[in-house]
Amino acid sequence: MVKEGFASRKKSKNSEPPVHVAIIMDGNGRWAKKRMLPKVAGHKRGADAVRRCVEDAIDLGIRYLTLYAFSSENWNRPEDEVNDLMGLLHRYLTKEVDELDDKNIRLAFIGDRSKLSPDIRALIEAAEQRTLNNSRLCLTLALSYGGRAEIVDAARKLAEQVQAGKISPEDISEETFSGKLHTHDIPDPDLIIRTSGEQRISNFLLWQIAYAEFVFLDVLWPDFNREVLEQALDEYGGRDRRFGARP
């Protein structure tokens, strides 16, 4: 049975929905393998799950949604699979941006764009500029992204500022460091969801998840739907978030 919306549920320790939900979308390949289909079929169904997730996030009051779409390590996958994924990304950026803009959704990207093809980089930049002022939901896609690389990049930028005499080492704080991360203009995630039954972070938002809640689901990403998302939100709602302090 599909549960009712978050707002109508029984009050719990976290009665409000999380502001920022980040999802490690895992299981496309296993979904296809179970059905004796090529991996690209799983990735296509995974793209359908992304569309559903965006709509459900809006309905459930989530303001920021970050999806781990393609990691820096994913470049090591077979060339044909990488090409299929890039083809799906190109199609998404070509066909979905109009609808996202119409729905007042901001589309943003984090990760190393240098490895992406010029046409995809151009589509990304156009989508970001077009939807920059939208405010209903901030949808961030992590592409060619690695948490360690992001931290190194932030440290390098601060080191360059120190070397140039613009700041001193004493000026470096958690706040200034966060300001150099790819996610500098969005809040840290409140809830991390990983599908497929795996229970690891996979180099995702390593700095930003310091006080996030984690929910690991046995559902493969192509089967992710509103009921599953609501179950994760229910789990989050029952947590007591103390941020290191006593109640």
UniProtKB/TrEMBL annotation:
Active site: 26, 74 (proton acceptor)
Keyword check for Transferase: yes
Transmembrane segments: none
UniProt entry tagged with the keyword Transferase: yes
BP-aspect Gene Ontology terms: polyprenol biosynthetic process
Its EC number(s): 2.5.1.-
Residues the record lists as binding substrate: 27-31, 39, 43, 71-73, 75, 77, 194, 200-202
A GO MF term: ditrans,polycis-undecaprenyl-diphosphate synthase [(2E,6E)-farnesyl-diphosphate specific] activity
Pfam families: Prenyltransf (PF01255)
InterPro entries xrefs: UPP_synth-like, UPP_synth-like_CS, UPP_synth-like_sf
Entry cofactors: Mg(2+)
Keywords: Magnesium, Metal-binding, Transferase
Cofactor binding, per record: Binds 2 magnesium ions per subunit.
Binding site for Mg(2+): 26, 213
GO cellular component: cytosol
Catalytic class of the enzyme: transferase
Domain of life: Bacteria
Cited function: Catalyzes the condensation of isopentenyl diphosphate (IPP) with allylic pyrophosphates generating different type of terpenoids.
Quaternary organization: Homodimer.
Family according to the record: Belongs to the UPP synthase family.
Name of the protein described by the UniProt record: Isoprenyl transferase
